[in-house]
Amino acid sequence: MDTAPQSGAAPLPPPLPPPAFSLWELAATARVLVLVIEATRRTTGWILPIVCVAFLLYAYYGGFLLDPDGNSVEALTGERELRVPSGRIDHLWIRVRDLAASKRFYTTIAPHAGLRIGTDEPERVHVLGENFSFALVDDGRPLTEPFHLAFSAHEDAAVRAFHAAALAAGYEDNGGPGERVVYHPGYYGAFVLDPDGHNVEVVNHNR
User: Using CA atoms, how far apart are residues 64 and 127, in angstroms rounded to an integer?
Assistant: First the structure.
């Protein structure tokens, strides 16, 4: 993903980190884990619960805090097939108005933006890229405010194909394919709006 400024439209706020879990959700999750561990201990003794907890800690270890706007920001580490280099965004959540409509949009642009649809659940759809992911979420909580999201391409043709595919599917143009030297020489991008008004771009930096 890229975070270059948008073009061809009025300025939009920067991307938002994943929203916070409520204390009730965290407490409920902890309670369920404790009950599962206790039930396993009574059935098999302490060995299996200890092994399971150790595996979970080994596979995923993270910590959360809230930024000044109340967004949940996480740092994490864990054993996984594809590691995200340190200092880069691993994943984010985007709360959407209509999950099916958002999934159709990202399915449309996926071949040209280096994306693919991953886990598809009733309240959440994961969209996967190379060493990053994001989730489209519809859980009744406040929607993510409009922001700018850019995906990298390796050739100008992919930028043009992204823009053409989106417009052919009925999505709104927010800046046609072209070089934006205001960012840097060779910056070639195109912009469209997704169903929630997020400014989505595919860009080839030609570097």
Answer: 22
Phi-psi bin for 57: left (phi > 0), alpha (psi -120 to 50), beta? alpha
Q: How far is CA 14 from the centre of its chain?
A: 14
Q: Each residue of 45-98: pLDDT tens digit? A: 777 666 666 555 545 566 656 666 666 666 655 555 555 556 566 668 899 999
Is 69 exposed, middle or buried (CB count within 10 Å of its CB: 0-12, 13-18, 19+)? Answer: exposed
Query: In terms of Cα–Cα distance, which of 112, 107, 100 is closest to 164?
Result: 112
Residue 148 pLDDT class (50, 70, 90 cuts): very high
The rounded mean pLDDT for the chain is 79
| Bigger pLDDT: 72 vs 161 | 161
